[in-house]
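Protocol step 4 of 6: structure prediction from sequence.
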Amino acid sequence: MPTAASRNLVVGVGCNRGTSVEEILELIHQVFTEAGLALASIRNLASIDLKADEPGLLETARRLGRPLRFFGRQDLETVQVPNPSSTVANHIGVASVMRSSSSSQRIGSGQSLILVPKHKTANATVAVARVESPS
């Protein structure tokens, strides 16, 4: 099992209000299985601070036993993403929540590399980044 020192994956998560923990977890499990990644390597989950009270996100982090870090819109605006979402831009005001959130881990913690680009269900979106500095 990876130690805290080897936890270097950040899971950026975007979701609609009211998205179930089951839908988010199923998507994360699917993405990790398809990419051959270990859930034990997750350093943290990340999303926009507008979702800081979202029960499905909070419960997902609890069930995975990993912290959930939130970023403000101003942090996410500075991150360039290859496939911006006009829907997210219209509703939230940034080009991407989950890709920006996973990429935003470089703020104060080294560079990141997107390993798994955007994967979606009807209500959730996930991307995975590897960061240089596990913590």
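Step 5 (inspection) to follow. Strands lie at 9-15, 42-48, 68-71, 112-120, 124-131.
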